[in-house]
Design a protein that fits this description.
174 residues, alpha/beta, 5-stranded parallel β-sheet, 14% strand
Amino acid sequence: MKILIIDDDLFDRMAIRRSLMMLSNKYEIVETSTAEDAITLLTDSHFDVAMLDFNMPKMDGIELISELKSVNGRSATTIIMLSNSNSEQLLIDCINAGAHDFLLKSEVTESTVNRALIQATKRFELENTVYSNYCTMKEMAEKDSLTGLSNRYYFDEYLHELINKKIDTTTVLE
């Protein structure tokens, strides 16, 4: 499993690394101290899990998740948010932004990191399954099963989209 730790605090990165290493020596761990470097790393190579600090100097964790989604579309990485704040609202905001789990830095131990990895990975898998099922159902709703051609529902949706965008339909239909 390839894990990226994103935290501006060296001691916090060391604590997370130590907990991960106590779990397994099979983890490939990469560390970075800035959100900008994290974006580059996550864009250029695949990581199974990104453990990121919410409170970083130039960009907080939610902004980082948003930036990653704008660069990569759907996230291909399980995200675990780390913070010193025990705020329930922060937890909800992080989950709503796309984090798969939330872990307090003061609770970083071998067992809590293991639990967070398991839960976040499972949530990520479930999220991908739901999205895949959505795409399949959307395809079934928009295409004729016999011919594979777009059906009336798709035509209506496309027409409404064109009307809403105020596109000249004569140029589209020509």
